[in-house]
Amino acid sequence: MSARTNGIIAALLVVCALSLVNAQYHARRLFVELGRAQSQSKLLDVQWAQLQLDQSTLGKHARIELVAKRDLKMLALTAASTQYLTVEAK
Questions:
Q1: What confidence tens digit (pLDDT) does each residue in 5-32 have?
Q2: pTM (2 d.p.)
Q3: How many Å apart are CA 49 and CA 57, to the nearest integer?
Q4: Residues 63, 57: contact at Cβ < 8 Å?
Q5: Residue 74 needs a FRET pair 20 to 30 A away by CA distance; which of 5, 17, 24, 55 works?
């Protein structure tokens, strides 16, 4: 082989080696990004479960009635306390 052929092969070898290093760097970067996304997904799943638990607790009839009586000072409606409005005819 001539010196020119050896030079071309060496240049191709260097280009392939640089391409391999670049591909490995890109793969590592994507792997780290995947790990971060998986961690965030797990955190969001935990938050979603907590929100569902809170919603089921706060939405129960007994809880709503307790808050209405205690905080809002509301009373149960009775027929004696009901006022009816009528429209007078002209």
A1: 999 999 999 999 999 999 999 999 999 9
A2: 0.55
A3: 12
A4: yes
A5: 55
